[in-house]
Amino acid sequence: MAATDPIVINVDLSAFRREVTDAERLSRGFGRALGDALEGGVVKGRSLSDVLRGLGTRLSALALSAALRPVENALGGVFANLTRGLLGGVTPFAQGGVLNAPTVLSSGGASLALAGEAGPEAVPPLARGADGRLGVAAAGAGHGPVTVNIATPDVESFRRSETQVAAALARAVARGRRGL
Question: Which helix (H) or strand (E) holds 28?
Fold first, then answer.
């Protein structure tokens, strides 16, 4: 990359956009509630205490609705997945996959687990390693021969750079172990 190349940063803004949409919807609801309350006082001749009481009730209902929406969404997804499971809509995840909605899973016994409740959640397939431990297998992780060619004008210059070469090789091996 040249010094003049632009730096590109990719950011997922979908959650932010949902929050802005929710805030806009709430502000419209607040505006309607305030407008209705003022209309009730000016046009319909209601008393100030009735207007304020009605406004307080409406604003409380808006706030409660906004606070309960995540719970409603989660429970709706849970029940949708339960009925889908009861009606034969079973999705296999032996090769892995992504849960895009709240999903109820069996944890092996009498208890259930909820996954995907905070957004998309990965289901990676597990594999048993050579050491017997169960875990996520890294794709393409292989051990092959590594060849290092060092060209120097003489043996003495190689001896002077030996520490630097060893350090560079150690860093390369560490990066390889991390999968970078």
Answer: helix 14-42
